[in-house]
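Subject: sequence -> C-alpha cells, single chain

Hey, anyone have a minute? Need the predicted structure for the following. Not urgent.
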Amino acid sequence: MIIIGVDIGKTKTGVSICDENQILASPLCTIKEKDNDNLAKKIIEISNLKNAKKIILGYPKNMNGTLGPSAKNVEYLQKKIHKISKNLEIILWDERLTTVCAQKNFTFVGRKSIKYKDKIDKASACLILQNYLDYLKSKS
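Reply:
Had a minute. Here:
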C-alpha cells in the first residue's frame, strides 16, 4: 500500500511517499499554500494521483506533549481531508524535532539549511513517514 507523509508548515508543506512494500520514504514535492481548504484539496489530489490509501500528517506537539496552535491547525486539516475524501485513512503522527533533524542532516553534509529550505520541508516529511514505517515494522 502506498502511504503519503506530510509535514505542514505555515507557508510550505513537504510531501513524501513510500514504496508499495512500505520500506522506504522518499521526497515527493513541496506545496506552497497557506489556505487550509486549498491545502487539503492539494493533498487529496496528490494522494489520488499516487494511489495512496493512507496519509500520515505530522502532528507538531510541544516538547512537553501539549498541543499548540500548529497542532490545532493539523487537526483541522485532518478533519477537512476526511470530510472531502472518506476513503483515505489519516493518521496524526508526532513530529517533534523532525525539522531540526532534517536541518542537521543538511548541515552534516555541508549544505546551508536556508538555501535548501524546500528540500528541508520534503526531508522532514520523509522523516515523519519513515518513523511511521519503522513503527509498523517493529509491530510485526
